[in-house]
Design brief:
Layout lengths: L1 H6 L14 H14 L15 H4 L2 H9 L23 H31 L5 H17 L1 H14 L5 H17 L5 H15 L7 H30 L7 H12 L8 H15 L7 H12 L10 H16 L3 H12 L6 H14 L4 H12 L2 H7 L7 H7 L1 H16 L7 H14 L4 H19 L12 H14 L9 H12 L8 H16 L4 H6 L10 H22 L3 H15 L4 H20 L12 H11 L5 H25 L8 H10 L23 H5 L3 H9 L4 H14 L5 H18 L6 H12 L5 H27 L7 H10 L3 H15 L18 H16 L6 H6 L1 H17 L12 H7 L1 H15 L3 H10 L11 H14 L5 H12 L4 H14 L5 H4 L2 H11 L5 H11 L7 H15 L6 H18 L8 H9 L53 E3 L2 E3 L1 E2 L5 H13 L11 E2 L30 H11 L36 E7 L7 E7 L21
Parallel strand pairs: 3-4
Antiparallel strand pairs: 1-2, 5-6
């Protein structure tokens, strides 16, 4: 080997070489260095010639460090390889040391490069990687040196291995690409090297050929025309091109980085010319068969198509496009379609070829596709027959190929496609509906539609066409979106579909609202309802190549925002904006935080788009913007910070839109500066600010609209500023949005809605419209509010609304006040929370109470439909009953007592006129029937009025007499009213003057019931001295005389009885007083019937005397009547007893349920019991005093005793325990001209406590009797009492009477009083004196 090596020419030494041969010497050095250690060579270099062994490590590192690190810095000068010979001899002599240094440096670098090229044959992967990196770095510094070294290495070592040569090709490709320019000699040399190796067959197969082809591609970056000429020559030889040539042409066609700007079009033009020249080969069987074989050759990986095959589809399409013979085109297209459609890249290639052929042969290609679609294999695939073998798989996705072909036809046909759009769309829709549904068909359908829509959008005349198949295509897209799994996001299907929809909506005809609404609903649900991104990523964790979920969702969300923007661009009106936002409102109210966050971001993006791009018509008025303000204002308090920020930013953009709009409408509108807006927060704390956005000090800045200043405020202040620019209609929408938010299940939404409702009403409540509907809605939502503060704010809003809208709210609240639930009651209390308003509310209720229409047919008992005025009148009665217990209305009820008393008495008569059932139905208990009837409701209203306003004496008077039942029937109603008025007179009620002042106007009322109630009260008030203080005697006489002409007979009778009052006939007093003594003697008659009639007559006489009562005979009346109360020593265990329960309570036998406990906080504090009321007290409560049943005669003695002591000391009655089933007694009415009213005997329980209390003070001391008479006869009542034990000894002449009272401990205690012996038996009473009537 040494001998062989010695025969090779050695390099020249430095002393021998000349300046003209420097480059040649360096090459000699590289050749000698290359021979050393060459595994393929047969010689070795001696040690003296191994430059690499003499180069130190530092020198190698230095040579590498000279390479610039940034490959972009290619503006460098090539290392000189020759020395110029134009220098003078002296200059050349001076340059000799410098030339020597440069020569040595170049030689060292060449030797290093040569050695690295040799080391590429190593089998160590890491070492190979390092070497390749070092060579590339050297190529950036001295590319020519490396190129020359590589060239010499190929020349000097022709027998190197294929693997080594493969690696050298990769290095050569990198070096050529790193060079800024390539000399022509190197181009030719390396092009020839690449062409020779591109077609070689080695053990590396296609990888080796591709490496050589890549060298040719690298040369194309410097001079592509030369390479293209060589390629054209090879392709047009008539022999089907080698795959390497097709590979190079495929890369040139698909890779944009190969050509500079403008060169791509030149290459495409040259390629089209090559296709024209290749048309002749279509008729060559060998060439055509090889072409079809290359197109159908299976790929190594079906996911990626090799460049040569992709190019071949393009080249085939260009050839068919250039073919003039339509028959040939049809034949080749059908032949291509008959190949396999199993693999996706194959289907795409077939579609591309068909699309290119359709550029010149659209009709023929369409006909072939139609014919192919009707073929048997396609029918099988459409009907989803079971695939039995692999041959059937090639037709399974044939419809996908057809869809892609239609898309390619649309893209390639360009201007000729518009008339074909409807035909293509109809075929796409057909294959979408009738093909086997899978991911392949879905993706092919989307791709084809995208290509078609893109082709249409690029045509300027597309907007002049009306496409009839747009609606059907949109329906297919909606079905596709609905079939997308809602819990995963793995593909760009949603994004592509939304992009298609955005493009289709720009075409004619425009979409109708129904279809547009469906599109918005489906798209919003498909995107916004996706799970959280973390959940979506979990579904892709098992994918080999999982997609970037964050990026995929962001692009999908951007597509959704662009679709909304596209809609508003097509129809830039306020109605369209409201229409789009209305579909977002559903998601803005979502209970899921991530859905609200996405929805508010889309809303903000749309507002930002409109704020930055003034698409809206300046004449458009944003009439429905109030709802959006409300939605965003509520979301400003969302717990999610991202939602808060987006909401606040959206409000800022909306504020800018409003300002811009209002400025155009009113040029003089003053826009607040950000500094002023920030100062508004200092004046008062925000009512409902979330606290997340802090107001920062602002700096003076020049701005058109203060959106940025708005964003620095709290949420409450932002909404307040926006409210200033809203109209009343928009404010109403804002309030409705807040009311709707009260019904949410999210606590933050409820609280935010209540705060915003209160803020809006506080700022603009006076001018609001539709307040009645607002009040009704608040009542409906109040039932679901569970947050105390939110409920208080809503009620406070009602209080503020009541200042200016009381009539509307009262009328509205009456509609849901039968029955009156707790929420409605709280609304009424809020309505009267302010004292002036509470008086107005009562006045309005009284006005509604007086609206008492009688439906036709009530007289004959026929059933009539419920009319609103009648229902509101009944509701007003029910409401007044409940409000009497509310502390907010306590003072107003006290002030309106006269009006309420008369109104309730008239209302009770009105209810009786309605023929409502007052008897319990079969199977229904009496108390339940009474509770459910309006009669009971009206009666309870009257009771509560007396009890809650402090009229305990009147209440107890009626309770003890059992007079409440008199109000339940029409024929006893006058007696009940008369007893109530009589109680007021006897108890010296302070309201007599006020009530009297209201009677005269009511006597002239058009309603008979009002005149009747007024005359009943007036006739009783005539016995009161207080009457004359407000109504002179002559005025009363005139009023009664006028009532004699009343149309009602009952009013005329009552007026006539009033005219017979002793007030107008003083002489009747002496007459009546003279008739009393004989009747008093009749108390001791032996007949019980006679005694009872006599007592009734005496009671009537004493009542008629009134203030002119027989004062001299009062003591005798009391003594005679008192003797009938001594039969009370025994307790009747069989007799039940009721309880006077205090305010609002009812007698046990009445069967009416009393109102709620007035002591509860809901109804306020109870009215205090009258001072001096005899009662037992246990833990601060009034305890009932039980009393046994009275005998009939004693019952008749009660009114006698009470009337006889009418002018005695006034003491409040005892709260007595009353029996459950009182027996009716007798009440005698005063005598008067005309017919008599039906009489009702008094009940057995009169005012016993009051009578006994007065009797205790009037009786003489023990042992004495009036006028010194001795009692020798017992009263008649002794004949009817039960035997009893003799009491203990007592003084002679004194009888003992015992009333059993249950003490607190439970044992009985005796209250003892003394009475004289019974008077002697009088003479018989004349029969005419015990008549029920007296002559006037």
């Amino acid at each position: 080997m040494d001998g062989q090596h010695s025969e090779k020419p050695h390099s020249h030494t430095t002393a021998d070489r000349t300046s003209s041969t420097t480059s040649q010497n360096s090459r000699s050095v590289r050749r000698q260095a290359g021979t050393c250690g060459n595994p393929e060579g047969d010689t070795r270099c001696p040690a003296s010639h191994r430059f690499s062994s003499h180069v130190s490590r530092s020198t190698k590192d230095l040579s590498c460090m000279k390479v610039p690190q940034d490959p972009a810095h290619r503006d460098r000068q090539a290392h000189p390889t020759t020395i110029l010979l134009c220098k003078s001899q002296s200059s050349q002599a001076a340059l000799v040391p410098r030339e020597h240094k440069m020569f040595m440096e170049e030689a060292y670098n060449a030797a290093i490069c040569f050695k690295m090229l040799r080391d590429l044959n190593s089998s160590d992967p890491l070492h190979l990687k390092y070497i390749i990196k070092k060579i590339k770095n050297m190529a950036y510094g001295t590319p020519n040196l490396v190129l020359e070294t590589i060239h010499d290495y190929f020349v000097d070592n022709p027998k190197i291995s294929s693997r080594h040569r493969f690696r050298l090709f990769h290095v050569l490709e990198a070096v050529i690409e790193a060079s800024d320019s390539l000399e022509e000699a190197w181009e030719k040399s390396f092009m020839q090297l690449a062409l020779e190796n591109m077609t070689k067959s080695t053990e590396l197969e296609e990888a080796y050929q591709d490496a050589a082809s890549n060298v040719l591609l690298a040369i194309c970056r410097h001079s592509w025309r030369v390479v293209a000429q060589h390629l054209e020559t090879e392709v047009l030889t008539g022999v089907f091109p080698h795959r390497s040539l097709l590979y190079v042409m495929g890369i040139l066609t698909s890779n944009e980085a190969v050509f500079n700007q403008g060169e791509k079009a030149c290459w495409e033009e040259q390629l089209a010319q090559m296709a024209v020249k290749s048309v002749q080969f279509l008729n060559t069987d060998v060439w055509s068969k090889e072409l079809l074989l290359a197109l159908t050759k299976p790929d190594q990986t079906h996911q990626e198509q090799p460049p040569e095959k992709a190019f071949l589809f393009i080249y085939y399409g260009l050839i068919l496009q250039a073919e003039d013979n339509s028959t040939t085109v049809r034949t080749h297209v059908r032949t291509l379609l008959d190949t396999s459609h199993q693999w996706p890249k194959q289907r795409e290639g077939i579609a591309l070829t068909i699309g290119l052929a359709a550029v010149r042969h659209l009709d023929h290609v369409w006909a072939v596709l139609e014919q192919f679609g009707r073929s048997t294999p396609i029918k099988w695939s459409l009907h989803s027959f079971c695939l039995k073998n692999s041959e059937d798989l090639q037709w399974k996705w044939a419809s996908s190929t057809i869809l892609l072909a239609y898309g390619q036809m649309a893209v390639r046909a360009k201007a000729h496609i518009l008339p074909w759009v409807d035909n293509i769309l109809s075929r796409m829709v057909f294959y979408f509906h009738y093909s086997s549904w899978d991911e392949t068909l879905k993706q092919s359908f989307l791709t084809a539609v995208l290509m078609l829509v893109g082709a249409i959008s690029r045509k300027e005349g597309a907007h002049s066409y009306e496409f009839s198949q747009i609606s059907e295509l949109l329906e297919c897209l909606m079905v596709l979106m609905e079939k997308e799994p809602q819990d995963t996001l793995c593909t760009s299907t949603r994004q592509q579909t939304i992009h298609i929809v955005s493009s289709l909506c720009k075409l004619r005809p425009p979409l109708d609202l129904e279809r547009k609404s469906r599109i918005l609903s489906v798209c919003l649900h498909s995107v916004l309802a996706l799970p959280l991104l973390d959940v979506l990523e979990k579904h892709t964790c098992l994918f080999l190549e999982p997609p970037n979920i964050q990026t995929l969702y962001n692009k999908t969300s951007e597509a959704l925002d662009q679709m909304l923007q596209s809609f508003i661009m097509q129809n830039p009106t306020a109605d369209e904006l409201h229409f789009l936002l209305s579909h977002l409102y559903l998601w803005l109210k979502s209970e899921k935080a991530h859905e609200r966050q996405r929805a508010v971001h889309s809303c903000m993006a749309l507002l930002r788009f409109l704020s930055h791009n003034p698409y809206l018509d300046p004449k458009e008025d944003l009439r429905r913007i109030g709802q959006l303000v409300g939605m965003l204002g509520i979301l400003c308090q969302d717990p999610d910070r991202a939602t808060q920020h987006s909401s606040l930013e959206g409000v800022g953009h909306l504020y800018q839109l409003l300002i811009r709009q209002r400025v155009r409408e009113t040029p003089k509108v003053e826009v607040q500066a950000p500094e002023q807006l920030s100062q508004a927060r200092v004046d008062g704390a925000p009512v409902w600010s979330s606290g997340d956005q802090k107001s920062a000090p602002t700096t003076p800045q020049k701005m058109a609209f203060p959106k940025d200043g708005i964003l620095q405020l709290g949420s409450s202040q932002v909404i307040k500023e926006v409210m200033k620019h809203l109209t009343m209609v928009e404010l109403n929408d804002l309030i409705w949005t807040a009311i709707d938010g009260l019904g949410s299940t999210s606590p933050f939404r409820v609280q935010a809605a209540a705060d915003m409702l209160l803020t809006t009403v506080k700022e603009h409540g006076a001018g609001l419209e539709t307040v009645a509907s607002l009040g009704r809605a608040i009542h409906l939502q109040l039932c679901s509010v569970r947050i105390p503060q939110a409920k208080e704010n809503a009620l406070h809003a009602i209080t503020l609304l009541a200042r200016n809208h009381t009539p509307e709210l009262v009328a509205t609240f009456l509609d849901f006040s039968i029955p009156l639930d707790s929420h409605a009651f709280r609304l009424w209390r809020a309505l009267g929370a302010e004292q002036p308003v509470s008086r107005l509310v009562l006045a309005m209720l009284l006005a509604w109470l007086q609206e008492r229409p009688l439906p036709a047919g009530t007289r004959d008992g026929s059933r009539q439909p419920k009319d609103k005025p009648r229902l509101r009148s009944l509701a007003a009665m029910n409401t007044l009953h409940e409000l009497q217990f509310a502390r907010e209305f306590k003072k107003a009820v006290q002030e309106a007592y006269p009006e309420l008393l008369l109104a309730l008495l008239t209302q009770m008569h009105y209810i009786l006129e309605l023929n409502l059932p007052d008897e319990p139905q079969p199977g229904q208990k009496a108390p339940e029937a009474a509770m459910s009837s309006l009669q009971s409701m009206s009666l309870e209203a009257l009771k509560s009025l007396l009890s809650t306003t402090g009229h305990w004496q009147d209440f107890a008077h009626l309770e003890l007499q059992g007079a409440w039942k008199l109000f339940t029937t029409t024929h006893t109603y006058p007696q009940g009213v008369g007893l109530l008025a009589r109680a007021m007179v006897q108890n010296h009620c302070k309201q007599i003057q006020a009530v009297t002042s209201l009677l005269l106007p009511r006597l002239q009322s058009k309603e008979e019931r009002e005149r009747k109630a007024a005359i009943l009260i007036l006739t009783e008030f005539l016995y009161s001295p207080a009457l004359l203080e407000v109504l002179p005697r002559q005025a009363a006489l005139t009023a009664l005389a006028r009532s004699l002409r009343d149309p009602s007979p009952e009013v005329r009778v009552l007026s006539l009885q009033g005219l017979g009052n002793i007030l107008f006939h003083p002489e009747k007093g002496s007459l009546l007083r003279r008739q009393l003594p004989p009747f008093l003697d009749g108390f001791f008659h032996n007949s019980e019937q006679v005694v009872m009639q006599v007592m009734g007559t005496v009671s009537d006489v004493l009542h008629r005397l009134g203030a002119h009562s027989a004062a001299a005979q009062s003591l005798r009346v009391a003594i005679n009547a008192r003797s009938f109360f001594d039969d009370v020593t025994g307790w009747d265990p069989s007799g039940g007893h009721g309880i006077v329960r205090g305010p609002g309570g009812s007698h046990g036998g009445q069967g009416a349920k009393g109102p709620a406990d007035p002591g509860t906080p809901e109804h306020g504090a109870p009215a205090p019991a009258p001072e001096g009321l005899l009662s037992g007290r246990r833990h601060g409560q009034v305890c009932p005093v039980p009393l046994r049943r009275a005998a009939p005669v004693a019952t008749s003695a009660h009114p006698v005793l009470h009337a006889g002591l009418g002018e005695g000391p006034q003491c409040p009655p005892l709260p007595l325990d009353l029996p459950d089933d009182p027996q009716p007694g007798g009440v005698w009415h005063p005598l008067g001209a005309g017919p008599q009213l039906p009489a009702q005997p008094p009940p057995p329980h009169q005012d016993l406590g009051s009578a006994l209390h007065r009797l205790h003070h009037l009786l003489p001391p023990p042992g004495r009797v009036p006028d010194g008479e001795q009692c020798r006869h017992k009263p008649a009542v002794l004949y009817f009492r039960r035997p009893q034990k003799r009491p203990r000894a007592r003084p002679p002449g004194i009888c003992q009477q015992t009333v059993l009272l249950p003490p607190e401990g439970g044992s009985q205690a005796a209250v003892t009083s003394s009475r004289p012996p019974s008077p002697p038996s009088p003479s018989p009473v004349p029969t005419e004196l015990v008549s029920p009537t007296l002559s006037t």
